Amino acid sequence: MKDWRALIIIGVLSALHVACSGQSEWTREERLNFQHFINAQKSAAAAVRLSGSGMQGSASASGTSSETLQLMRKALGEAQTVRDDVLAKAHPDLPEHFRNELQRGLQLQIKSRETGDASAETEGSGLHYRWIYWINSHNSEIKIPK
Q: Which of 19, 35, 57, 131 is the most exposed place for a label (fewest CB within 10 A)?
């Protein structure tokens, strides 16, 4: 009977340790889903780099614009695939900033390129800059799955 009590105490202590440890282990599925977060950022960054490389009015500007739009669509697709619970596991404020700044900014920038809506570009760029500021300010706090 003494051994039974010891096992219960060990079990309770183990459960408390996991609950209070700050970060539980990432499942394989969560790690795979988090990869969409990384892919979204990579594609968005590539779009920004590419859009800065094309000179407006140059012969290659329309090709660059098309490639930029393609990268933005890819980034948006990746952003829409990552789950909020996975983002929250990395940082409690990540889902809000990711959705409202990066994802919404991409949607507006895509809209601007598709319709010529300059105000959507302005708002989308502003949200993108807010995202960059937030992610850079909190980068050390984000728990990346291993």
A: 57
Q: 90, 72, 83: which is closest to 128 by C-alpha?
A: 72
d(CA 100, CA 27): 26
Q: How far apart (Å, rounded) are the C-alpha atoms in residues 94 and 84?
A: 8
pLDDT, one tens digit per residue, over 6-16 is: 444 444 444 33
Are the C-beta atoms of residues 46 and 106 closer than 8 Å to each other?
A: no
Residue extents of the structural domains in the chain:
28-141
The Cα–Cα gap between 88 and 33 comes to 12
pTM exceeds 0.85: no
Contacts of 85 (CB under 8 A, 6+ apart): none
Residues 88-101 have pLDDT tens digits of 999 999 999 999 99
